Amino acid sequence: MSLFSTSYILAVFLIFVRVGSLIMTAPYFNSAAFPKKVKIFLALITSFLLTFVIPSESVIGQVEPTLSFLVTAVVLEALVGIAMGLVGQLVFAGIEMAGQLISLKITLSFAQIVNTMTQQKSDLVGNIFGMLAVLVFLAMDGEKIYIQGLARSFEVIPLNQAELQYAGPFMLEVANYLFRIAVQIAAPFLIVLFILDLSLAIFARVMPQANIMFIAIPIKLLLGFTLLSWILPYLPDAFSSTFDQLFQYLVKVLGVMS
């Protein structure tokens, strides 16, 4: 097929829609540190290169240059890319939520800094967890796995043939995993600081004249930083297992939409 034929140009455009939607939503790729022009250029180059990798019967042969096909295909391809990107975003959100729970328990939730990935304000521990998660994600070649999954998606889900009605219940399962991640990572802090709160409550009953708030905040900060220094060396392993589950969910969401 000619590179300048209508069908070929339309196929590249539809591939660009899926690729661009994923880049705008997938973790690391959607970082605010990357200018939008860079993201668009990356999506264009990736789309063009994928046309030489994707089986022609999965893409080119399904393209019909009609208006109704184009509108339907653009919407479907955008939603497929967004669904793939949101799987990773939900997992990263679970890790950052764990940091938010820890910040809340050790009285650091009022300390807000700018997250370099999202350019939005977030708590200190959540920001640290988010940056560490990105480093672990890159160390595992997560961005390459996402690109490979993107190429694989065109074999599993040809253009304009996604079954998006089955993606909703699956996203609820991933959202449930988000809360499990947050509680599992923050569990040591939740348990220890619950025991501390219980002890301080008993102390306040025994000595009502004591200013318990003045005593509790320094103790929580000291205990929180001590626990954080103990668990930080083990967080990369925890994040690695979490990202293993992310990649499994990425394969499952493709299977569900096919």
Q: Give a quick account of the main beta sheet: strands, pairing sense, barrel closure.
A: 2 strands, antiparallel
Strand content: under 5%
Unreliable parts: none
Task: Give the N-to-C terminal Cα separation.
Answer: 26 Å
| Number of E strands | 2
Shape: elongated
Give helix % range: over 70%
The arrangement of helices and strands along the chain is HHHEEHHHHH
What spatial order of strands do you see in the largest sheet?
1-2
Rg for CA atoms: 23 Å
Number of helices: 8
Overall average residue pLDDT: 80
How many domains would you count in the coordinates? 1
The secondary-structure class comes to mainly alpha
Describe this protein with a few key phrases.
258 residues, mainly alpha, 8 helices, elongated
How does this structure look, described?
Role in flagellar biosynthesis. This is Flagellar biosynthetic protein FliR. Pfam families: Bac_export_1. The protein is an all-alpha fold and 258 residues long. The protein has one domain. Helices cover 73% and strands 2% of the residues. It has helices spanning 6-25, 36-50, 67-105, 124-139, 142-156, 167-206, 212-231, 235-257, and strands at 112-114, 121-123. The longest helix has 40 residues, at 167-206. The protein starts with 5 loop residues before the first helix and ends with a helix.
Quickly describe the structure.
The protein is mainly α.
Q: Helix and strand layout, with pairings?
A:
Layout: H1 6-25, H2 36-50, H3 67-105, E1 112-114, E2 121-123, H4 124-139, H5 142-156, H6 167-206, H7 212-231, H8 235-257
Helix pairs in contact: 1-2, 1-3, 3-4, 3-6, 3-8, 4-8, 5-8, 6-7, 6-8
